[in-house]
Amino acid sequence: MTLLSNKVALVLVDVQYDFLETGTLPVPKSSEIIPVITKLMKLIKDNGGLIVATQDWHPDNHVSFASNHKDKLPFQSTIIYHQGIPVNQVLWPVHCVQNTHGAHIVDAIPSELIDYTVQKGLNHNVDSYSGFADNQYFEITKLAKILYQNHIETVIIVGLAADYCVKMTCLDAIKFGFKTILIKEATRSVNPDEFDSTMELLNSKGVIIAHAKDLAIA
């Protein structure tokens, strides 16, 4: 697969401690993706590409935290209102709180290869899965601008978690006009039973589901 050039960006979605198996919001087998990602980062850099990392960066009063809702438990849902609009909100364990260890990008990821870091989820009133925008599109992050200014045409997406933040970042990458590729071996789901259906959904929306071997990094 000839995808490696200075018009390609690798987007690392939320490869943070709280999403590892030992974190507060553990993604099963999440640590398995780190060697694949590090190899891919080096390959992208060797071919002149761009690397952008997204980072969940929540205030401790974030609306997505179950602990901020009376009588609610993690993984339940509730209706919240943002700017008068009702939204079905999945409630999560407290995770990726600003300036905590759990919010840091995993040390095994070579930070010196990351060109930009895009923080998301800073607005405590609305959740933000995608690296491009919050869930209701009230606020757009700087990710699209970074990609446009660097003349990126293709984005390769990896990270956590496949059924939430990775999925929404992929779908938004399509909306923002980028050829979008997801490396299957470089993502894992919060709910492993939903991994295959997530891949099918993304493929149906125009996301290319590729394998590490396609980029000679297996």
Automatic annotation (TrEMBL):
Organism superkingdom: Eukaryota
EC number: 3.5.1.19
Protein known as: nicotinamidase
InterPro entries: Isochorismatase-like_dom, Isochorismatase-like_sf, Isochorismatase_Nicotinamidase
Organism this protein belongs to: Phycomyces blakesleeanus
Keywords: Hydrolase, Metal-binding, Pyridine nucleotide biosynthesis
SUPFAM superfamilies hit by this protein: Isochorismatase-like hydrolases
Matches recorded under Pfam families: Isochorismatase
Family per record: Belongs to the isochorismatase family.
Residue stretches making up the Isochorismatase-like domain: 9-210
Annotated metabolic or biological route of this protein: Cofactor biosynthesis; nicotinate biosynthesis; nicotinate from nicotinamide: step 1/1
